[in-house]
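Posting for a labmate who doesn't have an account.
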Amino acid sequence: MRRALLLLLAASFAGVAHAAKTLDIYFVDVEGGQATLIVTPAGQSLLVDTGWRGFNGRDADRIIQAAKKAHIKKIDYVLITHYHRDHVGGAPNLADRIPVGTWLDHGPNREDTKVVREDFADYERISKAQHQVVKPGDRIPLKGVDVTIVSADGALLTEPLTGGGQENPVCAGTPKRDIDNTENARSAGFVLTYGAFKFADLGDLTWNKELDLACPVNKLGTVGVFLVSHHGMNLSNSPALVNALHPRVAIIDNGARKGGSPEAWQTVRNSPGLEDIWQLHFAIEGGADHNAPDPFIANVDEACQGKALVLAASEDGSFSVTNTRNNYSKSYAVSGR
């Protein structure tokens, strides 16, 4: 009898342990840049961008805090979406603080400005030991998780992902804009799939490139969670893209005075099927009408402690988001769509 009870308890605990294995995404506050740490159920890690340089290594320190909470001592892959300071500037500080397996990027810098040349030179110095260039269609080799590159160096996915390929009726009402020759348009973006859960991060990809991914057919399909492009700026986030992705939840990695523009925020809010917007900062420009409710904002004051948002996703497509400022958490059940 005792043996049977012990076996039953062991099976129960094994079931709990299995259920506890989630895909975890830490949206680190780097004050209007990007640093998104993804940790798979198998314990592998992918960091998307490294935040700003300077500030006494503030952003690298915040990434390390997230890594400690995730119980990882090495970052297997760092994907640099593009070479603007708020995305690649923190790379040297990060490399001083934690081992990195492989640095991934879209290839050479394409923007001839002093600041970008400087940051790219520093990045080249620390990444040359183990470095790979990614192209649309490439996959980052994480066990049990599919991470497919959909944009890089101005090139885009040519064939739809699984679940994509539908005609996009919003394209007709979304005109193109002037050509963007900055590094933003070169951003390396991806769609991550973990079972029935999907997450899209396109870096700072701008309007016209977004349209080419979403029009005339939606090459990306729908996602559960969308990291709003370009920190929620209106240089990105066309209605055609946002509606095509049809996210349940949108997360904005904005700063107090960078990103979260009212126009882009409203486009996301109007997306059919959207349940919630979560933000890393209260956007001062947005005011009361164009910010999420207080529980959904990680940092409500401009002078903040750098609180993060943490997402935990299950293979069945359900997920939760937690605000580390107030420990408010919301769960999103398996979707019927």
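Reply:
Got it, the structure tokens are right above this. The longest helix spans residues 2-20.
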